[in-house]
Amino acid sequence: MECQTSPMSTPLEIIVKDANGWVFLIEKDALECDRPLIPVKIGGDKYILFKDGEGRIGLIARNCPHRGADLCFGRLEKGGIRCPFHGWYFDKNGQCLEQPAEPPDSKMFNAIKLPNLQVKLEKKGVYAYIDAQDR
Ligand code: FES
């Protein structure tokens, strides 16, 4: 199956004006491809929906908190996605796990977390939890 993996792809856009609670995002099969990463726009905020190498699904902010690189160009790895610019590594919850250029004993990555939305995989597809009050 072909994926919308290019940053040039039109993002899947979710109108959240009246959305509150679990909102259907996409068919489950859309993430069954070589590079399961889809740009998503929710109420004006940009995210990426991706599946890591362990099959876990995440919906995290699209731009890296370091220098703003587009994570649509990121490298999907076993436990998350790695920024294509300086290699910061994020899990499905947006938590930074590694900063390769920091000294080995640095724990700064613990304080870095991308905005994220809860997602769940059900029979029909992928759902995101959207709180309209936050929009
Ligand atoms: S811009 Fe992402 S690690 Fe630098």
How would you portray this structure in words?
The protein has 135 residues and is mainly β. It has one domain: 3-layer Sandwich (Rieske Iron-sulfur Protein), CATH 2.102.10. 0% of the residues lie in helices and 37% in strands. The protein is built from no helices and twelve strands. Strands 1-3-4-5-10 form a five-stranded mixed β-sheet, with no helix packed on it. It binds FE2/S2 (inorganic) cluster (FES). FE2/S2 (inorganic) cluster binds next to loops.
Name of the top-level CATH class? Mainly Beta
* SSE ordering: EEEEEEEEEEEE
Whole-number count of domains: 1
CATH superfamily: Rieske [2Fe-2S] iron-sulphur domain
Strand order of the largest sheet: 1-3-4-5-10
Q: Could you give the count of β-strands?
A: 12
Number of helices: 0
What's the short story on this structure?
The protein has strands spanning 12-14, 21-27, 37-42, 45-51, 57-61, 75-77, 80-82, 89-90, 96-98, 116-117, 119-121, 125-130.
